[in-house]
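thought: user wants a sequence for this fold. calling inverse folding tool.
action: design(structure=
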């Protein structure tokens, strides 16, 4: 079967696969009250993950990011990595983590086949880090980043959501950090979720403002590579690190969309924000269901809308990003 493609000519070679909704942090923009289980959730099991990865790899998926909630809280996290690594069609295995378990496990995950890692660090000031994440773990997370660099990861990226009147003053500190450290920083513009209009209005900082500040300091936008997706990347000859901006409110953000999402309960989400997710789980039980699953994926892609509706304040069913991995 051919590559997944939608009615707008976009091709999807990148899957963000959530493996749990559970998280041990309480980021104020995501899970301010911490993770609250909804009944007795049953997250994807290893055989379901194997069937999912197999089907997606047949329809052109080349990159898989394992996400959550906090994906590394799964006891079988290394087994999940191995399942993805064993699939020859997948070129890139990445994860996004809050870094809580990184120091202890960076080498183990690398040895299992993980090659790229994004660590969320919203502030380089330990007190502000605590204020935003609800966890006093700044030093532990930073030691984790060092461990990842030592373990040999191809890419260590740092995700930070810059928030007005909270960590927005940290920008110079972040820049100072990457002057001599080969880290890719990604600033993610705060997205409005079903959680809180008030929070959004108080703390949303437009990505365009950050972009102007970068230009003013001599940063230049890199030419977009084919698999960049929606990030805009910047570099500076005096800095070893690079910067990426994710600006979901920017015009044309959706035009370069190349990703699909599957939630930890096995629902396909064509967009972070537009629909409630289509159940795939009934077709994840046996290898023999592969052809039917592939057919369902193709059928669903025809439903993908051209853009999200965040500009209109429509956040879909996404209560918070921990439920489908951001
Ligand atoms: N727990 C892991 C972590 O924090 O890296 C992985 C899951 S988390 C949902 C993935 C990314 O989404 C994180 O970098 C987080 O900062 C980002 N995120 C969560 N809620 C967001 C929001 N409302 N707007 C923008 N980014 C958000
Ligand atoms: Fe947890 Fe990540 Fe959400 Fe923070 S952003 S609460 S670490 S899932």
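)
observation: tool returned 326 residues.
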């Amino acid at each position: 079967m051919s590559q997944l493609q939608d009615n707008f000519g976009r091709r999807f070679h990148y899957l963000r696969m959530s493996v749990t909704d559970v998280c041990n942090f309480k980021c104020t923009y995501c899970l301010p009250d911490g993770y609250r289980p909804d009944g007795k959730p049953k997250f994807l099991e290893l055989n379901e993950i194997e069937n999912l990865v197999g089907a997606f790899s047949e329809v052109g998926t080349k990159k898989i990011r394992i996400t959550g909630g906090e994906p590394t809280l799964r006891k079988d996290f290394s087994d999940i990595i191995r399942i993805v690594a064993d699939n020859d069609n997948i070129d890139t295995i990445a994860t996004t983590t809050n870094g809580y378990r990184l120091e202890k496990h960076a080498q183990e995950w690398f040895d299992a086949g993980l090659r790229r890692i994004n660590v969320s660090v919203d502030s380089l000031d330990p007190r502000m880090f605590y204020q935003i994440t609800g966890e006093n773990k700044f030093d532990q997370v930073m030691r984790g980043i060092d461990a990842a660099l030592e373990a040999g990861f191809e890419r260590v990226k740092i995700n930070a959501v810059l928030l007005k009147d909270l960590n927005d003053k940290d920008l110079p500190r972040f820049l100072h950090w990457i002057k001599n450290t080969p880290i890719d920083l990604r600033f993610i513009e705060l997205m409005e979720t079903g959680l809180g209009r008030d929070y959004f209005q108080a703390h949303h900082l437009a990505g365009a403002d950050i972009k102007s500040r970068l230009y003013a300091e001599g940063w230049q936008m890199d030419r977009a590579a084919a698999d960049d997706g929606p990030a805009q990347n910047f570099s500076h000859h005096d800095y070893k690190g690079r910067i990426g901006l994710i600006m979901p409110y920017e015009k044309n953000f959706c035009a370069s969309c190349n990703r699909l999402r599957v939630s930890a309960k096995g629902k396909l989400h064509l967009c972070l924000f537009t629909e409630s997710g289509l159940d795939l789980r009934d077709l994840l039980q046996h290898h023999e269901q592969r052809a039917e699953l592939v057919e369902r994926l193709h059928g669903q892609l025809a439903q993908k809308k051209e853009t999200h509706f965040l500009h209109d304040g429509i956040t879909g069913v996404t209560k918070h990003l921990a439920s489908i991995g951001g």
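thought: summarizing for user.
answer: Here is the designed sequence. The pocket of S-adenosylmethionine (ligand 1) is lined by residues 23, 29-30, 67-68, 70, 96-98, 120, 159, 161, 188, 190-191, 193, 321-322, 325-326 (CB under 6 Å).
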